[in-house]
Amino acid sequence: MILITGGAGFIGSNFLLDWLALCDESVVNLDLLTYAGNLANLSSLENDPRHIFVRGDIGDIKLVPELLNKYKPRAVVNFAAESHVDRSIHGPEDFVQTNVVGTCHLLESVRAYWGALGEDAKSSFRFLHVSTDEVYGSLGQDGPAFTEENRYQPNSPYSASKAASDHLVRAYHHTYGLPVLTTNCSNNYGPHHFPEKLIPLMIVNAQAGKPLPVYGDGQQIRDWLYVKDHCSAIRRVLEAGKLGEVYNVGGWNEKPNIEIVQRVCALLDEMNPRADGKSYLEQVTYVTDRPGHDRRYAIDAVKIERELGWKPTETFETGIRKTVVWYLEHQDWVNNVLSGSYRDWLEKNYVERVE
Ligand code: NAD
Ligand code: TYD
User: Fold this and answer.
1) Distances (CA, A) of 96 to 11, 82, 157, 162, 164
2) Ligand 2 pocket member 220 (CB < 6 A)
3) Nearest to residue 251, comparing CAs of 229, 279, 280, 276?
4) Which of 40, 169, 216, 218 is most buried (most C-beta within 10 Å)?
5) What are the residue numbers of the active site?
């Protein structure tokens, strides 16, 4: 069995569902169910004995050792984090608490558990830390994509806290020999993506007849990867990654934000046209930029392809179409997520942004 953290969130839930669809190895899912954790993501596993859900904090130094000793996982995959850059700008401390202190506590709990394992279990054990390309900072318009050799230059409280957690993971390998692996992935999109992030926010706002808020000039570039491809990369690294190594994961798909918004609008125009016959593009509104907004991220995913034979299977075209279809077919999920506390966040983040 394996233990994952943050399995009720966007990427963790996709990982868990894919894992159990592909094999019979059970999964303990430790998730605090913050605003971003949603058990509705896992409703299809309700009666599945292979999924053991535990509500709790990765930083809980009593609970985590108990779980490890009870379930004896052969691997831990750490998805749990505060993950939204804009929230980190409004309140960095939660990010330090979960992403830095929480990861440190988790590493301590795992180190104690791993240290007490028998020789075989000890050598086959893995701790895989799921991280982001944002730790590398921002690229110029024409600079080469991030490789694993790039310097860490995080610019937001979110990326700084993830960078700190990556360093701790690295240090636990070098200092204590903990068998760790780290993945640094580009922007994901797909089912279960919380509508505070660009793509789901645009889909949900468009349908609700609301403005589509594009920060600054909309020319910031991200490298987008369909979430299920990220999950397959994590499985591959867990299976065959070299201990202590870092693997960049990306979709070879750099696009300016405005093009993403235009593509989402075009798909919605095709699949669910506005009643007045006009395009959803009419709802695009340029708003005040994010402070310290990183201009460009791009991932060089050559290492994971060369060493582990991993490549994404979706193109942006196939992935974004699936994503829009998923949101149109899961209006109940969207309504459930659009709860009171989420509406408070929208007020806080967008009310002060001028058009
Ligand atoms: P998410 O915000 O959708 O989900 C995070 C999950 O972690 C939620 O279920 C939440 O309840 C849980 N959680 C938060 N704090 C916790 C704590 N202290 N203890 C236990 N559980 C806690 O995030 P996501 O987009 O699914 O991202 C998952 C991981 O992947 C993060 O580490 C993120 O940094 C990384 N990542 C995300 C992206 C992306 O585009 N979303 C890209 C690269 C890397
Ligand atoms: P986001 O989905 O928050 O991911 P990240 O900041 O981790 O890359 O944002 C993706 C890009 O979209 C980023 O450049 C900011 C921009 N953006 C907007 O233009 N408008 C929005 O309302 C949001 C949420 C993001």
Assistant:
1) 20, 9, 8, 9, 9
2) yes
3) 229
4) 169
5) 133-134, 158
Residue 289's identity, in one-letter code, is: D
Does 102 sit in the ligand 1 pocket, CB within 6 Å? yes
Q: How far apart are CA 231 and CA 292, in angstroms?
A: 29
Domains identified in the chain and CATH numbers: 2-189+225-251+296-313 (3.40.50.720)
* Cα within 13 Å of Cα(184), Cβ side: 31
Ligand nearest to the CA of 210: 2
pTM over 0.90? The answer is: yes
- Residues 248, 146 contacting (CB under 8 angstroms): yes
Give the C-alpha distances (Å, rounded to integers) separating 236 from 122, 179, 220, 264, 309.
Answer: 20, 16, 30, 30, 9
Using CA positions, which residue lies closest to atom 25 of ligand 1?
10
Q: Is the pLDDT of residue 342 over 90?
A: no
Atom number in ligand 2 closest to CA 83: 7
Q: Which ligand is nearest to the CA of 291?
A: 2
Ligand 1 pocket residue status of 5, Cβ below 6 Å: yes
Segment 230-239 shows an average pLDDT of 98
Look at the alpha carbons of 116, 68, 97, 167 in this order and tell me if their dihedral is positive or negative.
positive
For residue 34, how far is its CA from the centre of ligand 1 (angstroms)?
Answer: 10
Helices (H) and strands (E) in the chain, counts: 14, 12
